Amino acid sequence: MSAALDNSAPDSPASTEHVMPGKRVRLAVDRPMRLDSGVEIGGFQIAYQTYGTLNADKSNAIFICHALTGDHFVVEKHPVTGKPGWWEMLVGPGKPVDTDRYFVICSNVLGGCLGSTGPKDIDPATGQPYGLSFPVVTIGDMVRAQKLLVEHLGIEKLFCVIGGSMGGMQVLQWAVAYPESVFAAVPIATAARHSAQNIAFHEVGRQAIMADPEWRGGNYLLEGTRPEAGLAVARMAAHITYLSEAALHRKFGRNLQDRKAVTYGFDADFQVESYLRYQGAAFVERFDANSYLYITRAMDYFDLAADAGGSLANAFRPGGKTTPVRFCLASFSSDWLFPTSESRAIVHALNAVAGNVSFVEIETDKGHDAFLLDEPEFHQVIHGFLEGCAEHRGLSVRRRER
Amino acid sequence: MVDIRDDLKLIAEMVEPNSRVLDVGCGDGALLDHLAHTKNVDGRGIELSMDGVRQCVAHGLSVIQGDAETDLKDYPAEAFDYVILGQTLQAMKQPRDVLEMLCRIGRRAIVSVPNFGYWRVRMQLMLTGRMPVTEKLGYQWWETPNIHFCTLRDFVVLTEEMGITIEQTRIIDRAGRVTSRAHSGFANLLGEQGVFLLRRSGS
Known about the structure:
By secondary structure, chain A is of the alpha/beta class. Helix content of chain A is 34%, strand content 17%. The radius of gyration of chain A is 21 Å and the shape is globular. In chain A, 50% of the residues are buried. An 8-stranded mixed β-sheet of chain B has the order 3-2-1-4-5-8-6-7, with helices on both faces. Chain B starts with 5 loop residues before the first helix and ends with a strand.
Protein backbone atom coordinates (compact mmCIF):
# COMPACT_ATOMS: atom_id res chain seq x y z
CA MET A 1 0.00 0.00 0.00
CA SER A 2 1.48 3.33 -0.91
CA ALA A 3 -1.42 5.69 -1.34
CA ALA A 4 -0.25 9.14 -0.38
CA LEU A 5 -2.39 11.04 2.04
CA ASP A 6 -1.93 14.73 1.58
CA ASN A 7 -3.35 17.13 4.12
CA SER A 8 -1.36 20.07 2.96
CA ALA A 9 -3.97 21.50 0.61
CA PRO A 10 -4.52 25.08 1.77
CA ASP A 11 -8.29 24.72 1.61
CA SER A 12 -8.26 21.61 3.76
CA PRO A 13 -11.01 22.13 6.31
CA ALA A 14 -9.85 22.88 9.82
CA SER A 15 -10.31 20.15 12.38
CA THR A 16 -13.26 20.41 14.67
CA GLU A 17 -10.92 21.72 17.39
CA HIS A 18 -10.16 24.96 15.65
CA VAL A 19 -11.37 26.66 18.80
CA MET A 20 -9.06 24.61 21.04
CA PRO A 21 -6.24 26.49 22.72
CA GLY A 22 -2.61 25.53 22.15
CA LYS A 23 -0.11 25.50 19.35
CA ARG A 24 -0.33 23.56 16.13
CA VAL A 25 1.87 22.98 13.16
CA ARG A 26 1.65 21.21 9.81
CA LEU A 27 4.52 18.80 9.36
CA ALA A 28 5.89 16.75 6.47
CA VAL A 29 4.47 19.30 4.06
CA ASP A 30 7.35 19.21 1.56
CA ARG A 31 8.21 15.58 1.96
CA PRO A 32 5.60 13.08 3.15
CA MET A 33 6.38 10.87 6.13
CA ARG A 34 6.45 7.15 5.52
CA LEU A 35 4.49 5.17 8.08
CA ASP A 36 5.43 1.67 9.25
CA SER A 37 2.49 0.37 7.20
CA GLY A 38 4.10 1.76 4.04
CA VAL A 39 1.50 4.49 3.60
CA GLU A 40 2.89 7.98 3.16
CA ILE A 41 1.27 10.87 4.96
CA GLY A 42 2.06 14.49 4.26
CA GLY A 43 1.03 17.82 5.69
CA PHE A 44 -0.50 16.39 8.83
CA GLN A 45 -1.25 18.57 11.80
CA ILE A 46 0.31 18.16 15.24
CA ALA A 47 -1.16 20.03 18.19
CA TYR A 48 1.25 20.74 21.03
CA GLN A 49 1.98 22.79 24.09
CA THR A 50 5.22 24.17 25.44
CA TYR A 51 6.07 25.38 28.91
CA GLY A 52 9.14 27.26 30.10
CA THR A 53 11.88 28.78 27.99
CA LEU A 54 14.32 27.18 25.59
CA ASN A 55 17.85 28.17 26.56
CA ALA A 56 20.36 29.71 24.16
CA ASP A 57 22.05 26.47 23.14
CA LYS A 58 18.73 24.60 23.05
CA SER A 59 19.94 21.97 25.48
CA ASN A 60 17.18 22.10 28.11
CA ALA A 61 14.22 20.63 26.22
CA ILE A 62 12.16 17.86 27.79
CA PHE A 63 9.64 16.05 25.61
CA ILE A 64 6.66 14.53 27.42
CA CYS A 65 4.87 11.62 25.75
CA HIS A 66 1.26 11.18 26.77
CA ALA A 67 -0.59 7.94 27.42
CA LEU A 68 -3.41 6.27 25.46
CA THR A 69 -6.17 8.71 26.36
CA GLY A 70 -3.94 11.62 27.37
CA ASP A 71 -3.21 14.75 25.42
CA HIS A 72 -0.88 17.73 25.29
CA PHE A 73 -2.61 19.67 28.06
CA VAL A 74 -0.08 18.57 30.67
CA VAL A 75 -0.18 21.38 33.16
CA GLU A 76 -3.12 23.70 32.52
CA LYS A 77 -6.84 23.23 33.05
CA HIS A 78 -8.15 20.92 30.34
CA PRO A 79 -10.10 22.88 27.71
CA VAL A 80 -12.81 20.19 27.43
CA THR A 81 -13.14 18.69 30.89
CA GLY A 82 -12.04 21.67 32.98
CA LYS A 83 -9.95 19.30 35.11
CA PRO A 84 -6.34 20.04 36.13
CA GLY A 85 -3.61 19.07 33.67
CA TRP A 86 -2.97 15.32 33.68
CA TRP A 87 0.61 15.65 34.94
CA GLU A 88 0.45 18.90 36.89
CA MET A 89 1.66 16.93 39.94
CA LEU A 90 4.99 16.29 38.21
CA VAL A 91 5.36 19.20 35.80
CA GLY A 92 5.42 22.91 36.58
CA PRO A 93 7.42 25.62 38.29
CA GLY A 94 9.50 24.04 41.07
CA LYS A 95 8.12 20.56 40.30
CA PRO A 96 10.36 17.59 39.44
CA VAL A 97 10.02 18.48 35.75
CA ASP A 98 10.72 22.11 36.54
CA THR A 99 9.33 24.49 33.93
CA ASP A 100 11.43 27.28 35.47
CA ARG A 101 14.44 25.34 34.36
CA TYR A 102 13.46 23.20 31.41
CA PHE A 103 11.65 23.85 28.16
CA VAL A 104 8.85 21.30 28.18
CA ILE A 105 7.09 20.09 25.03
CA CYS A 106 4.12 17.76 24.72
CA SER A 107 2.20 16.96 21.55
CA ASN A 108 -1.03 15.14 20.86
CA VAL A 109 -0.11 11.87 19.14
CA LEU A 110 -0.63 11.32 15.44
CA GLY A 111 -4.01 9.57 15.17
CA GLY A 112 -5.26 11.38 18.26
CA CYS A 113 -8.37 13.47 18.55
CA LEU A 114 -7.40 16.67 20.34
CA GLY A 115 -5.88 18.62 17.50
CA SER A 116 -3.41 16.30 15.81
CA THR A 117 -4.50 14.68 12.58
CA GLY A 118 -6.55 11.57 13.24
CA PRO A 119 -9.47 9.54 11.94
CA LYS A 120 -12.07 12.16 12.78
CA ASP A 121 -10.44 14.79 10.59
CA ILE A 122 -11.46 15.54 7.06
CA ASP A 123 -9.67 13.59 4.36
CA PRO A 124 -8.80 16.27 1.79
CA ALA A 125 -9.06 13.67 -0.94
CA THR A 126 -12.74 13.01 -0.25
CA GLY A 127 -13.84 15.99 1.79
CA GLN A 128 -15.21 13.55 4.36
CA PRO A 129 -13.91 12.36 7.71
CA TYR A 130 -11.26 9.67 7.36
CA GLY A 131 -12.95 7.18 9.63
CA LEU A 132 -11.37 3.79 9.02
CA SER A 133 -9.65 4.99 5.85
CA PHE A 134 -7.12 6.71 8.12
CA PRO A 135 -3.87 4.74 7.91
CA VAL A 136 -2.96 2.55 10.87
CA VAL A 137 -0.25 4.29 12.87
CA THR A 138 2.32 2.73 15.19
CA ILE A 139 4.26 3.95 18.20
CA GLY A 140 7.17 4.37 15.78
CA ASP A 141 5.02 6.61 13.57
CA MET A 142 3.91 8.73 16.53
CA VAL A 143 7.55 9.23 17.50
CA ARG A 144 8.53 10.03 13.89
CA ALA A 145 5.98 12.81 13.94
CA GLN A 146 7.30 14.02 17.31
CA LYS A 147 10.82 14.06 15.90
CA LEU A 148 9.62 16.28 13.05
CA LEU A 149 8.03 18.60 15.59
CA VAL A 150 11.24 18.76 17.64
CA GLU A 151 13.22 19.53 14.48
CA HIS A 152 10.65 22.16 13.59
CA LEU A 153 11.36 23.77 16.97
CA GLY A 154 15.05 23.83 16.04
CA ILE A 155 16.10 21.34 18.74
CA GLU A 156 18.82 18.90 17.76
CA LYS A 157 19.04 16.93 20.98
CA LEU A 158 16.42 16.57 23.68
CA PHE A 159 17.66 16.73 27.23
CA CYS A 160 15.05 14.18 28.24
CA VAL A 161 12.07 12.24 26.93
CA ILE A 162 9.65 11.14 29.63
CA GLY A 163 6.29 9.40 29.73
CA GLY A 164 4.23 6.67 31.33
CA SER A 165 2.33 3.69 29.93
CA MET A 166 1.95 4.26 26.16
CA GLY A 167 4.02 7.39 26.75
CA GLY A 168 6.74 5.12 28.11
CA MET A 169 6.61 3.06 24.92
CA GLN A 170 7.22 6.24 22.96
CA VAL A 171 10.11 7.12 25.26
CA LEU A 172 11.70 3.73 24.54
CA GLN A 173 11.06 4.20 20.83
CA TRP A 174 12.71 7.63 20.94
CA ALA A 175 15.78 6.22 22.67
CA VAL A 176 16.07 3.32 20.23
CA ALA A 177 15.23 5.19 17.00
CA TYR A 178 17.12 8.40 17.77
CA PRO A 179 19.79 7.58 20.38
CA GLU A 180 21.89 10.58 19.38
CA SER A 181 18.97 12.95 19.81
CA VAL A 182 18.11 11.94 23.37
CA PHE A 183 20.32 12.59 26.39
CA ALA A 184 18.12 10.92 28.99
CA ALA A 185 15.03 8.71 28.81
CA VAL A 186 12.46 8.07 31.53
CA PRO A 187 10.05 5.27 30.58
CA ILE A 188 7.55 4.82 33.40
CA ALA A 189 5.14 1.94 34.08
CA THR A 190 5.63 0.58 30.62
CA ALA A 191 6.90 -2.35 28.57
CA ALA A 192 9.10 -3.03 25.57
CA ARG A 193 6.19 -4.91 24.04
CA HIS A 194 2.48 -5.08 24.62
CA SER A 195 1.63 -8.32 26.39
CA ALA A 196 -0.94 -10.83 25.17
CA GLN A 197 -3.14 -9.98 28.14
CA ASN A 198 -3.01 -6.30 27.31
CA ILE A 199 -3.78 -6.91 23.64
CA ALA A 200 -6.73 -8.97 24.86
CA PHE A 201 -8.05 -6.12 27.00
CA HIS A 202 -7.71 -3.74 24.07
CA GLU A 203 -9.61 -6.14 21.86
CA VAL A 204 -12.49 -6.15 24.36
CA GLY A 205 -12.59 -2.36 24.17
CA ARG A 206 -12.50 -2.28 20.39
CA GLN A 207 -15.19 -4.92 20.11
CA ALA A 208 -17.38 -2.92 22.47
CA ILE A 209 -17.05 0.11 20.18
CA MET A 210 -17.58 -1.83 16.99
CA ALA A 211 -20.58 -3.66 18.44
CA ASP A 212 -22.34 -0.34 19.04
CA PRO A 213 -24.82 0.10 16.13
CA GLU A 214 -24.11 3.83 16.26
CA TRP A 215 -20.54 3.16 15.21
CA ARG A 216 -21.75 2.54 11.65
CA GLY A 217 -18.65 0.74 10.45
CA GLY A 218 -16.60 3.73 11.55
CA ASN A 219 -18.68 6.25 9.57
CA TYR A 220 -20.55 7.69 12.53
CA LEU A 221 -19.36 11.25 11.86
CA LEU A 222 -20.70 11.16 8.35
CA GLU A 223 -23.96 9.59 9.46
CA GLY A 224 -24.41 11.92 12.39
CA THR A 225 -24.41 9.28 15.13
CA ARG A 226 -22.17 8.74 18.16
CA PRO A 227 -21.10 5.30 19.42
CA GLU A 228 -21.19 6.53 22.99
CA ALA A 229 -22.32 3.32 24.63
CA GLY A 230 -19.56 1.28 23.01
CA LEU A 231 -16.84 3.79 23.79
CA ALA A 232 -18.06 4.12 27.38
CA VAL A 233 -17.92 0.34 27.89
CA ALA A 234 -14.42 0.27 26.38
CA ARG A 235 -13.38 2.95 28.85
CA MET A 236 -15.00 1.17 31.79
CA ALA A 237 -13.19 -2.08 31.04
CA ALA A 238 -9.89 -0.29 30.53
CA HIS A 239 -10.34 1.80 33.65
CA ILE A 240 -10.44 -1.32 35.81
CA THR A 241 -7.03 -2.29 34.47
CA TYR A 242 -5.59 1.06 35.57
CA LEU A 243 -6.49 0.43 39.20
CA SER A 244 -5.81 -2.36 41.64
CA GLU A 245 -8.05 -4.53 43.76
CA ALA A 246 -6.59 -2.85 46.85
CA ALA A 247 -7.30 0.63 45.50
CA LEU A 248 -10.82 -0.28 44.40
CA HIS A 249 -11.50 -1.85 47.77
CA ARG A 250 -10.11 1.14 49.64
CA LYS A 251 -12.16 3.55 47.56
CA PHE A 252 -15.46 1.69 47.27
CA GLY A 253 -15.43 -1.68 48.98
CA ARG A 254 -18.90 -3.16 48.55
CA ASN A 255 -20.53 0.14 49.48
CA LEU A 256 -23.94 0.81 47.97
CA GLN A 257 -24.71 3.91 45.91
CA ASP A 258 -27.31 6.19 47.56
CA ARG A 259 -29.29 3.29 48.92
CA LYS A 260 -29.48 1.14 52.00
CA ALA A 261 -30.08 -2.21 50.35
CA VAL A 262 -29.58 -3.88 47.00
CA THR A 263 -32.50 -3.40 44.61
CA TYR A 264 -32.61 -6.86 43.05
CA GLY A 265 -32.16 -5.29 39.65
CA PHE A 266 -29.49 -3.99 37.35
CA ASP A 267 -29.22 -0.42 38.49
CA ALA A 268 -25.86 0.73 39.70
CA ASP A 269 -26.38 -0.62 43.22
CA PHE A 270 -22.70 -0.51 44.08
CA GLN A 271 -20.59 2.59 44.26
CA VAL A 272 -17.97 0.98 42.07
CA GLU A 273 -20.55 0.51 39.31
CA SER A 274 -21.67 4.08 39.56
CA TYR A 275 -18.06 5.23 39.46
CA LEU A 276 -17.32 3.22 36.32
CA ARG A 277 -20.46 4.46 34.59
CA TYR A 278 -19.40 8.00 35.37
CA GLN A 279 -15.90 7.35 34.02
CA GLY A 280 -17.38 5.93 30.83
CA ALA A 281 -19.82 8.81 30.36
CA ALA A 282 -17.17 11.45 31.00
CA PHE A 283 -14.77 9.83 28.57
CA VAL A 284 -17.06 9.97 25.55
CA GLU A 285 -17.27 13.74 25.96
CA ARG A 286 -13.61 14.15 25.16
CA PHE A 287 -12.56 11.18 23.06
CA ASP A 288 -13.20 9.94 19.56
CA ALA A 289 -14.15 6.27 19.21
CA ASN A 290 -12.12 5.67 16.06
CA SER A 291 -9.08 7.34 17.62
CA TYR A 292 -9.45 4.86 20.46
CA LEU A 293 -9.33 2.00 17.95
CA TYR A 294 -6.23 3.38 16.23
CA ILE A 295 -4.26 4.24 19.33
CA THR A 296 -4.95 0.94 21.09
CA ARG A 297 -3.81 -0.78 17.91
CA ALA A 298 -0.57 1.19 17.93
CA MET A 299 0.14 -0.10 21.43
CA ASP A 300 -0.70 -3.67 20.44
CA TYR A 301 1.80 -3.56 17.59
CA PHE A 302 4.60 -2.26 19.81
CA ASP A 303 7.45 -4.77 20.16
CA LEU A 304 10.92 -3.26 20.38
CA ALA A 305 12.72 -6.60 20.41
CA ALA A 306 10.97 -7.81 17.26
CA ASP A 307 12.15 -4.68 15.50
CA ALA A 308 15.73 -5.44 16.62
CA GLY A 309 16.00 -8.99 15.35
CA GLY A 310 14.30 -10.59 18.34
CA SER A 311 16.75 -9.35 20.96
CA LEU A 312 15.80 -6.44 23.17
CA ALA A 313 19.45 -5.92 24.09
CA ASN A 314 20.22 -5.35 20.39
CA ALA A 315 17.74 -2.49 20.38
CA PHE A 316 20.04 -0.75 22.85
CA ARG A 317 23.20 -1.45 20.86
CA PRO A 318 22.97 0.90 17.88
CA GLY A 319 25.80 0.29 15.44
CA GLY A 320 27.24 -2.32 17.79
CA LYS A 321 27.91 0.26 20.50
CA THR A 322 26.20 0.70 23.86
CA THR A 323 23.40 3.26 23.71
CA PRO A 324 24.60 6.66 24.94
CA VAL A 325 21.18 7.37 26.46
CA ARG A 326 20.87 7.49 30.24
CA PHE A 327 17.77 5.62 31.38
CA CYS A 328 15.68 5.84 34.50
CA LEU A 329 12.82 3.35 34.75
CA ALA A 330 10.11 3.28 37.37
CA SER A 331 7.35 0.77 37.98
CA PHE A 332 4.64 0.48 40.62
CA SER A 333 4.24 -2.56 42.82
CA SER A 334 0.45 -2.89 42.37
CA ASP A 335 0.46 -2.22 38.60
CA TRP A 336 -0.78 -5.42 36.95
CA LEU A 337 -1.24 -3.86 33.51
CA PHE A 338 2.45 -3.01 33.15
CA PRO A 339 3.91 -5.03 36.01
CA THR A 340 7.42 -4.56 37.38
CA SER A 341 8.60 -7.63 35.48
CA GLU A 342 8.11 -5.70 32.23
CA SER A 343 10.35 -2.86 33.41
CA ARG A 344 12.84 -5.36 34.74
CA ALA A 345 13.08 -7.01 31.31
CA ILE A 346 14.12 -3.64 29.90
CA VAL A 347 16.64 -3.16 32.72
CA HIS A 348 18.10 -6.59 32.03
CA ALA A 349 18.47 -5.77 28.34
CA LEU A 350 20.21 -2.52 29.22
CA ASN A 351 22.48 -4.36 31.65
CA ALA A 352 23.35 -6.80 28.89
CA VAL A 353 24.84 -3.92 26.92
CA ALA A 354 26.26 -2.30 30.09
CA GLY A 355 23.96 0.66 29.54
CA ASN A 356 23.52 3.49 31.99
CA VAL A 357 20.28 2.68 33.79
CA SER A 358 18.52 3.40 37.02
CA PHE A 359 15.42 1.52 38.07
CA VAL A 360 13.12 1.57 41.05
CA GLU A 361 9.86 -0.14 41.86
CA ILE A 362 7.68 2.21 43.88
CA GLU A 363 5.59 0.59 46.62
CA THR A 364 1.98 1.70 46.20
CA ASP A 365 -1.50 0.18 46.08
CA LYS A 366 -2.73 2.61 43.41
CA GLY A 367 -2.09 0.37 40.41
CA HIS A 368 -1.09 1.53 36.95
CA ASP A 369 -2.59 4.98 37.48
CA ALA A 370 -0.01 5.68 40.19
CA PHE A 371 2.23 7.41 37.64
CA LEU A 372 -0.41 10.14 37.36
CA LEU A 373 -0.99 10.49 41.09
CA ASP A 374 0.65 11.99 44.13
CA GLU A 375 3.49 9.54 44.78
CA PRO A 376 6.19 11.51 46.62
CA GLU A 377 8.84 8.78 46.35
CA PHE A 378 8.30 8.51 42.61
CA HIS A 379 8.56 12.28 42.28
CA GLN A 380 11.80 12.33 44.31
CA VAL A 381 13.30 9.76 41.97
CA ILE A 382 12.37 11.74 38.86
CA HIS A 383 13.64 14.96 40.39
CA GLY A 384 16.94 13.42 41.48
CA PHE A 385 17.50 11.68 38.17
CA LEU A 386 16.91 14.87 36.20
CA GLU A 387 19.18 16.85 38.54
CA GLY A 388 21.96 14.31 38.09
CA CYS A 389 21.51 14.34 34.31
CA ALA A 390 21.43 18.14 34.24
CA GLU A 391 24.79 18.14 35.98
CA HIS A 392 26.23 15.73 33.41
CA ARG A 393 24.68 17.68 30.56
CA GLY A 394 26.25 20.84 31.90
CA LEU A 395 22.93 22.61 32.41
CA SER A 396 23.45 25.49 34.78
CA VAL A 397 21.86 24.99 38.13
CA ARG A 398 19.14 27.53 38.59
CA ARG A 399 17.72 27.12 42.03
CA ARG A 400 14.54 28.95 42.74
CA GLU A 401 14.60 31.58 45.43
CA ARG A 402 11.84 30.80 47.85
CA MET B 1 31.24 15.17 51.52
CA VAL B 2 29.81 12.62 53.87
CA ASP B 3 32.28 10.52 55.81
CA ILE B 4 32.12 6.89 54.77
CA ARG B 5 32.61 3.64 56.65
CA ASP B 6 36.19 2.48 57.23
CA ASP B 7 35.91 -0.60 55.06
CA LEU B 8 34.41 1.53 52.30
CA LYS B 9 37.41 3.86 52.51
CA LEU B 10 39.74 0.92 52.05
CA ILE B 11 37.67 -0.25 49.09
CA ALA B 12 37.78 3.25 47.59
CA GLU B 13 41.57 3.28 47.90
CA MET B 14 41.79 0.19 45.71
CA VAL B 15 39.88 1.84 42.85
CA GLU B 16 41.85 3.59 40.10
CA PRO B 17 40.56 7.03 39.07
CA ASN B 18 38.31 7.36 35.99
CA SER B 19 37.31 3.70 36.03
CA ARG B 20 33.91 2.03 35.60
CA VAL B 21 32.55 0.65 38.85
CA LEU B 22 29.55 -1.47 39.82
CA ASP B 23 28.69 -1.45 43.52
CA VAL B 24 26.56 -4.48 44.38
CA GLY B 25 24.40 -3.78 47.42
CA CYS B 26 25.22 -0.09 47.30
CA GLY B 27 22.82 0.90 50.10
CA ASP B 28 22.26 4.64 50.12
CA GLY B 29 25.05 5.14 47.59
CA ALA B 30 27.67 6.58 49.97
CA LEU B 31 30.57 4.72 48.35
CA LEU B 32 29.43 5.47 44.78
CA ASP B 33 28.99 9.12 45.64
CA HIS B 34 32.43 9.19 47.25
CA LEU B 35 34.03 7.50 44.23
CA ALA B 36 32.25 9.80 41.79
CA HIS B 37 33.51 12.90 43.55
CA THR B 38 37.01 11.82 44.59
CA LYS B 39 37.97 9.54 41.70
CA ASN B 40 35.69 10.62 38.89
CA VAL B 41 34.49 7.06 38.37
CA ASP B 42 31.56 6.12 36.14
CA GLY B 43 29.58 4.37 38.85
CA ARG B 44 26.55 2.09 38.84
CA GLY B 45 24.80 0.32 41.67
CA ILE B 46 22.45 -2.52 42.51
CA GLU B 47 20.41 -2.32 45.68
CA LEU B 48 17.61 -4.45 47.06
CA SER B 49 15.65 -1.87 49.06
CA MET B 50 13.38 0.69 47.43
CA ASP B 51 14.47 3.31 49.94
CA GLY B 52 18.13 2.78 49.16
CA VAL B 53 17.53 2.99 45.42
CA ARG B 54 15.34 6.05 45.81
CA GLN B 55 18.02 7.83 47.83
CA CYS B 56 20.69 6.89 45.29
CA VAL B 57 18.74 7.97 42.23
CA ALA B 58 17.57 11.12 44.00
CA HIS B 59 21.27 11.94 44.40
CA GLY B 60 21.92 11.48 40.73
CA LEU B 61 23.47 8.01 40.95
CA SER B 62 22.69 5.28 38.40
CA VAL B 63 21.28 2.51 40.53
CA ILE B 64 18.85 -0.29 39.79
CA GLN B 65 16.64 -2.09 42.23
CA GLY B 66 17.70 -5.70 42.07
CA ASP B 67 19.26 -8.74 43.61
CA ALA B 68 22.88 -9.76 43.11
CA GLU B 69 21.91 -13.39 42.71
CA THR B 70 19.43 -12.79 39.88
CA ASP B 71 20.52 -9.53 38.27
CA LEU B 72 24.27 -9.92 37.79
CA LYS B 73 24.02 -12.63 35.17
CA ASP B 74 22.82 -10.21 32.46
CA TYR B 75 25.97 -8.12 32.40
CA PRO B 76 28.54 -8.91 29.72
CA ALA B 77 32.02 -10.09 30.73
CA GLU B 78 34.35 -7.30 31.86
CA ALA B 79 31.59 -4.72 31.66
CA PHE B 80 33.27 -2.91 34.56
CA ASP B 81 36.78 -2.22 35.75
CA TYR B 82 35.71 -3.00 39.31
CA VAL B 83 32.74 -4.80 40.79
CA ILE B 84 32.40 -4.18 44.50
CA LEU B 85 30.63 -6.37 47.02
CA GLY B 86 30.85 -4.94 50.50
CA GLN B 87 29.95 -7.15 53.48
CA THR B 88 27.21 -9.10 51.75
CA LEU B 89 28.82 -12.24 50.34
CA GLN B 90 27.86 -14.05 53.54
CA ALA B 91 24.19 -13.19 52.93
CA MET B 92 24.08 -14.84 49.50
CA LYS B 93 22.39 -18.15 48.85
CA GLN B 94 25.15 -19.15 46.45
CA PRO B 95 28.21 -17.13 47.44
CA ARG B 96 30.51 -19.09 45.16
CA ASP B 97 28.34 -18.37 42.11
CA VAL B 98 28.16 -14.71 43.05
CA LEU B 99 31.93 -14.53 43.42
CA GLU B 100 32.28 -16.17 40.03
CA MET B 101 29.96 -13.56 38.49
CA LEU B 102 31.77 -10.66 40.16
CA CYS B 103 35.06 -11.80 38.64
CA ARG B 104 33.41 -12.33 35.27
CA ILE B 105 31.69 -8.97 34.82
CA GLY B 106 34.52 -6.99 36.43
CA ARG B 107 38.15 -6.96 35.36
CA ARG B 108 38.66 -6.84 39.11
CA ALA B 109 36.40 -7.50 42.05
CA ILE B 110 36.67 -5.92 45.47
CA VAL B 111 35.08 -7.99 48.19
CA SER B 112 34.93 -7.35 51.91
CA VAL B 113 33.98 -10.19 54.26
CA PRO B 114 33.48 -10.35 58.02
CA ASN B 115 35.84 -12.86 59.61
CA PHE B 116 34.17 -15.65 61.55
CA GLY B 117 37.67 -16.67 62.68
CA TYR B 118 38.15 -13.38 64.57
CA TRP B 119 39.35 -14.13 68.09
CA ARG B 120 36.35 -12.52 69.80
CA VAL B 121 34.01 -14.66 67.73
CA ARG B 122 36.02 -17.77 68.58
CA MET B 123 36.01 -16.85 72.26
CA GLN B 124 32.25 -16.29 72.37
CA LEU B 125 31.56 -19.67 70.84
CA MET B 126 34.11 -21.39 73.06
CA LEU B 127 33.20 -19.74 76.35
CA THR B 128 29.42 -19.37 76.08
CA GLY B 129 28.72 -22.25 73.73
CA ARG B 130 26.33 -20.00 71.82
CA MET B 131 26.36 -18.53 68.33
CA PRO B 132 28.46 -15.37 68.41
CA VAL B 133 26.74 -11.99 68.28
CA THR B 134 29.14 -9.10 67.79
CA GLU B 135 28.74 -5.36 67.51
CA LYS B 136 29.05 -5.45 63.71
CA LEU B 137 27.10 -8.68 63.29
CA GLY B 138 24.38 -8.06 65.83
CA TYR B 139 21.90 -10.74 64.85
CA GLN B 140 20.63 -13.79 66.69
CA TRP B 141 21.03 -17.02 64.77
CA TRP B 142 17.33 -17.25 63.88
CA GLU B 143 17.06 -13.78 62.39
CA THR B 144 20.41 -13.26 60.74
CA PRO B 145 20.51 -12.60 56.99
CA ASN B 146 24.09 -13.88 57.12
CA ILE B 147 23.62 -17.49 56.15
CA HIS B 148 27.10 -18.30 54.81
CA PHE B 149 29.73 -17.16 57.27
CA CYS B 150 33.34 -17.93 56.59
CA THR B 151 36.70 -17.23 58.12
CA LEU B 152 39.31 -15.27 56.21
CA ARG B 153 41.19 -18.52 55.66
CA ASP B 154 38.03 -20.15 54.27
CA PHE B 155 37.66 -17.27 51.86
CA VAL B 156 41.25 -17.50 50.71
CA VAL B 157 40.91 -21.26 50.15
CA LEU B 158 37.80 -20.68 48.02
CA THR B 159 39.57 -18.14 45.83
CA GLU B 160 42.41 -20.63 45.31
CA GLU B 161 39.93 -23.34 44.33
CA MET B 162 38.23 -20.99 41.90
CA GLY B 163 41.44 -19.80 40.29
CA ILE B 164 41.05 -16.28 41.58
CA THR B 165 44.13 -14.24 42.36
CA ILE B 166 44.18 -12.01 45.42
CA GLU B 167 46.05 -8.89 44.30
CA GLN B 168 45.69 -6.87 47.48
CA THR B 169 44.58 -7.57 51.03
CA ARG B 170 43.62 -5.29 53.91
CA ILE B 171 42.86 -6.84 57.28
CA ILE B 172 40.98 -4.54 59.65
CA ASP B 173 40.56 -4.79 63.40
CA ARG B 174 37.57 -3.78 65.46
CA ALA B 175 38.63 -0.12 65.55
CA GLY B 176 38.83 -0.02 61.75
CA ARG B 177 42.63 0.03 61.70
CA VAL B 178 44.51 -1.91 59.06
CA THR B 179 46.43 -4.59 60.97
CA SER B 180 47.85 -6.43 58.04
CA ARG B 181 48.34 -6.28 54.30
CA ALA B 182 48.64 -10.04 54.03
CA HIS B 183 46.03 -12.72 54.57
CA SER B 184 48.53 -15.14 56.09
CA GLY B 185 49.88 -15.34 59.61
CA PHE B 186 47.64 -14.11 62.39
CA ALA B 187 45.24 -12.24 60.11
CA ASN B 188 42.60 -14.89 60.53
CA LEU B 189 42.73 -14.45 64.29
CA LEU B 190 43.24 -10.72 64.67
CA GLY B 191 41.22 -9.33 61.80
CA GLU B 192 37.55 -8.53 62.23
CA GLN B 193 37.14 -8.26 58.48
CA GLY B 194 39.14 -8.50 55.31
CA VAL B 195 39.02 -6.47 52.12
CA PHE B 196 40.31 -8.21 49.00
CA LEU B 197 41.14 -7.03 45.50
CA LEU B 198 40.54 -10.00 43.21
CA ARG B 199 40.95 -10.94 39.60
CA ARG B 200 40.53 -14.12 37.66
CA SER B 201 43.91 -15.77 37.23
CA GLY B 202 45.18 -15.49 33.71
CA SER B 203 42.99 -12.53 32.94
